[in-house]
Design a protein that fits this description.
- It is built from 12 helices and 13 strands.
- By secondary structure, it is an alpha/beta fold.
- It has 2 domains: 133 residues, Rossmann fold (3-Layer(aba) Sandwich); 177 residues, Rossmann fold (3-Layer(aba) Sandwich).
- It has a 7-stranded parallel beta sheet with strand order 8-7-6-9-10-11-12, with helices on both faces. The protein has a 6-stranded mixed beta sheet with strand order 2-1-3-4-5-13.
- Helix 5 crosses helix 7.
- The longest helix has 19 residues.
Length: 325
């Protein structure tokens, strides 16, 4: 039997032209779309006969309606950790297995987290613009050595951020839904309550997955609890934050600044309120985009397909929904 494998969204190109494409083509009949499906109907037309869908881009909304239209679909293999663009409950009801690639880009995202934090603390975007304009500014910057970094979430990315921050001389504390002495010892961090973390941290960095439980997790009262000198960093998902609360906290200087790689609108429109604020460092949701992270994650996504089609056990950490088909 030839397995029908569809990649509906390799735009911009990630999988095409890599060894991951070569590998997936050994597993069945493969069709790769190199543009974006502009409507739900167009997406359904692309994948309605698929047995396997490899989901490359988070903009592809695999809704209940889309999944219900794909009667042969047995597996959705997501490249990346986030599965918030897949209706997981519908997948569960329909018996569709959903997998992801947790940790594949953890090092890359962690490095980016530290990079944009340093850019914010040292005002590098401002200084770069000034020097290019022929100016020679003298501005006061923030030294991170000795400061407290509070991590909300201590998964693969958070643990790498903790290690790197300690290398800068920062004291690292953390909050998670499931703290344990073992994880604290392994990561060299101290678990605290959310209230203590917000109150004590000079930098708060967000590293939670976006789920029904965490959507809108960070609200006005959380920004109100932070130090007015504190920085806020988000290289996770924009949906974790109430956008109006973030804007108000920055505008009113309840916090000193933010470094962001995820937004409620992407691409960020020129009229977006955050764009007008001088105390924000922006990057275009590309924290995980290094060659090493990309190919590692793509190969994991394809290997999940290979294991599924061969009837082998997929690593439990990579299974988001265990289907019946």
């Amino acid at each position: 039997m030839t397995h029908r494998i569809i990649i509906p969204d390799d735009f911009p190109r990630a999988l095409s032209g890599t060894k991951a494409e070569d590998k997936v083509k050994t597993l069945g009949e493969v069709q790769i779309y190199l543009d974006k499906a502009n409507t739900q109907e167009e997406l359904i037309e692309r994948i309605k006969e698929a047995e396997v869908v490899i989901n490359i881009r988070a903009y592809t909304n695999l809704s209940a309606e889309v999944l219900a239209s794909c009667r042969d679909l047995r597996l959705i293999s997501v490249w990346g950790t986030g599965t918030d663009n897949v209706d997981l409950e519908s997948a569960r009801k329909l018996g569709i297995t959903v997998t992801n690639t947790p940790g594949a880009n953890a090092l890359s995202v962690a490095e980016h987290t530290i990079a944009i934090l340093l850019s914010l603390a040292r005002q590098i975007p401002l200084l770069d613009r000034e020097v290019r304009s022929g100016n020679w500014p003298r501005v006061e910057m923030v030294q991170l050595d000795g400061k407290v970094l509070g991590l909300l979430g201590l998964g693969a990315i958070g643990r790498h951020v903790a290690r790197m921050a300690k290398g800068l001389g920062m004291d690292v504390i953390a909050w998670t839904f499931h703290p344990s002495p073992k994880r604290a010892k392994e990561s060299g961090v101290r678990f605290v309550s959310k209230e203590e973390l917000l109150r004590s941290s000079d930098v708060v960095s967000l590293h939670l997955p976006l789920t029904d439980e965490t959507r809108g997790f960070f609200k006005k009262e959380h920004f109100d609890s932070m130090k007015p000198t504190a920085f806020f960093v988000n290289t996770a998902r924009a949906g974790l934050i109430e956008p109006e609360a973030l804007y108000e906290a920055l505008l009113s200087k309840k916090i000193a600044g933010a470094a962001l790689d995820a937004y409620d609108q992407e691409p960020v429109p020129p009229a977006h309120p955050l764009i007008t604020l001088p105390n924000v460092v922006f990057t275009p949701h590309n924290a995980g985009m290094t060659p090493e992270a990309i190919i590692h994650g793509l190969m994991m996504a394809v290997e999940n397909v290979e294991a599924f089609l061969a009837g082998k056990g997929i690593h439990p950490a990579y299974v988001v929904v265990k289907g019946r088909r």
